[in-house]
From TrEMBL:
Protein name (database record): Fibronectin type-III domain-containing protein
CDD domains: FN3 (cd00063)
Pfam families per the UniProt record, alphabetical: fn3 (PF00041)
Keyword Repeat found: yes
Membrane topology, as annotated: Single-pass type I membrane protein
Keywords: Glycoprotein, Membrane, Receptor, Repeat, Signal, Transmembrane, Transmembrane helix
Top-level taxon in the UniProt lineage: Eukaryota
Gene3D superfamilies listed in its UniProt record: Immunoglobulins
Entry-linked PROSITE patterns: FN3 (PS50853)
Chief location of this protein within or outside the cell: membrane
Cell compartment(s), UniProt: Membrane
Amino acid sequence: MAPKLSHGAVETCDDGNMTANVASPVQPGTSVTLSCQLNPLQHTGLCRTVIFLNSSELITSYSSAVNPPDEPRNVSCIQNGTDGHPTCTWDKGRLTYISTTYVAGLPLGTKNTACHCLQPLSPHESDIIRPLSSLKVESLSGEKCGLYGLEPHTDYEFHLSCKIHPERGLWSNWHVYQTRTPEAVPTGLLDVWYRQQDVDNQRQNISLFWKALSRSEAGGRTLQYRVSFEALGQQRSPAGEDITNHTSYTRVMPRVGYKITVTAENSRGRSPPASIITSLGTQGLPPPQEVSAVAMGNSSILVSWKPPAGLVASSLGGYVVEWAELGRDTGLEPHPAWVKLPASNLSTVITEHIKDNVCYQISVFALYEDRAGQGASVRGHSRAEAPLAGPQVYTTPRANGILVSWAPIPAHQQRGCITGYHLYLQNKDREEAPAVYGRCLVETEARWVAQCWLLMAHLQPGDHYTIWMTASTTAGEGPRGNSELLSLESMSLCRAGGQEKS
């Protein structure tokens, strides 16, 4: 402990000199200036400064130097809500090495009981108050924010932030607000297509199909579809109306023409009516010409055509391209795939429900106003491989030879559209190499070759023959099917077990 000093006295110690500008003792409330001058240190050390009050140690500080406090800089204050407590931060500058007290004065004025965004308070208050983030959209000064162009019946997540003064101050923390927009009246027009088949001379079966509206067109959840019929050309039209929850409808009706209208309904209303006209006779409505299908790979087919004979595009209402998988059970695929195109289009690439190595029946119809004319069909695939199996061969003796017939290969083994069949013949007695006896080509326009036949009329009596068949696609020829062993002399047939090697 340093001894009491007289005014201006200098105390000498081993580590340096300390000077006080007042006499001892020091009265309370008196300012005291102490200075300490250290001698060059041989090792790291600190200077101990002590202030006494009535011989009691009041303040003790260890430091290598004592600095007066700098003026605070970069002062920033934040108050969460108008009823919260402000929190201030600042840069206090260099260290003073003794206990230092800072006082912040905030002239906030009268506090408000609610946050009114974009309505300024006092100049200083609006600069430091951060609005609470628990506000909802409806509570912002009693005003609502209008957002336009949102999709109906759609979930949205909004992130909200506000501040008190429009040009300065602090933004609140983000508040997440989730809501769903209300439904709206459907705006889309249903895409409707149909198939017509006579039941007898008095009745017909009409099957309707339509595509569900897109999310933006539906305006909400579709509750039902309304189908109405109006008979054409009759004074007392037998009209009817049905409701369904499906995107297809089938009805057996008298054999007359009809105007059929389909609408979609949600909780807000109905979509615009989509109408088609069915007709019993299409002889005066010719089909498109030169329909072709080109494999494009990647599950796509290019379909091209020319306008019906003697007609120009301006006289047509457009075209419908329809396609379905050949050989598939129609019960498993109640909806055909189709696309409607304007009259200026004479080609399209179809991709919906198209799979590689599958053969499709593709039909193109011209639209005459709301009526579909005759269709022109072609077979096509997006990609093909050689068939996985050969046809099942059947032989029947005839007076003038052997009748050979066969059943088609199952659709899943065809691997594309079959282009032809080859009938092979081998004379077992003469040990001849097998040769192609006949060919049966399948035209691309053919819908389905259920069974074909060939007559073998130039066989040598008494010789034994083996026959078998193969099928081909554009990718190549497949393996041989079953073999049949036959002899023309005895008119007897013997089916060989398995596939006989040549």
